[in-house]
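Model it.
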Amino acid sequence: MLNGRVTGLADGVYTNRPVSGAEVEIYEVDPATGERRTNAPAHRKTTGEDGVWGPFIGRSDAFYEFVLAMAAQPITHTYRSPFLRSSDLVHLRPAVFGKGDEGAAAVVAMSRPRGYFGVGRDKFSLDGKLPPGIPEGVPSVSVARLAVDAAPRPILATFNNETIPIRPWPVKDNHLAIAEFLKLSELPAGEIARIDAEHLISTPLAPADLLFVFGQRRGVPELIAAAVDLWRRGLYPHAVVSGGATQGDPRTECSVITAGMVAGGVPAGRIIEEHRATNTGENVIFSLPLIDAALGRANVRRVICLGKVCTARRYPMTLQRHWPEVEKMLVTVNPYGVPVERWHTDPLFRARVLAEDAKIAPYRARGFIADWP
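Modeled.
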């Protein structure tokens, strides 16, 4: 849960005084492009005398855009990377136009509220460029800005290992966009080691009777490549591909993945297709009758589970809950562009892993999954 206050300015200087009557909207955005996932905000509130804009219950693996509109100030679009934990200190304040901004089509900025940008010390860029106005020497600048065209497109703000996508908004309409970098709280080394050992696992492989492909939207090319590779290595004679409607695509996850596997040389007649599932439990529940009808469940003794790396052990744990008799192996794919051993250094990879690991205990308690191995 997130919450905080809206604060403003007095005589051009930021204050900690709460602002009433400010309009706050929150949108979930695409982690690659910054584009809003929905037209309607996930949260909207007009602040009262205390300036409080929340609470807002978000997701720890989601990127959000915070829109702040208040009297006599620019409409500020603040883009942030995922919040890994709840906080009631997510305070909002308006950005301000700088000298010369009035002549720009759009202005984008990047900010470090708790530090400075250091040339040579840090790696940072805005729209692929080193933003102007940051001198060499002792770091002393916490906000960098860049004039850009106002055409809708993703603009990437990068600071060391963190990238935040933002969108340009027209200056003529009194808008500013800013990527705000808050220092990621360090995970204890023991917690990283535990997740490495317990969650981000794979198993030795042996020839199986069935490959179980868990559908997904992210990392589909990697998933297809892995399924084709396992087929060429002779590790399965049959596969089931499970996955329903894909957001923004009329095709099901199953349709997309199956087509890719067939194009890679897996015979269509060896693939069992399941087109309804919308979560991991449904992947298994909806596929089991199809497997039974096509192969006979009693004839399947070994299964290879294939899915994305952040979910990892939850795939075989779900299968264990509904089909404990078979031996299970696990192969995962990594679509994040960061080596698995460095998952905790990338904001999106880290957020997805922590969100998935956090599901294990409650899902086990509710009977959605079972212990494995």
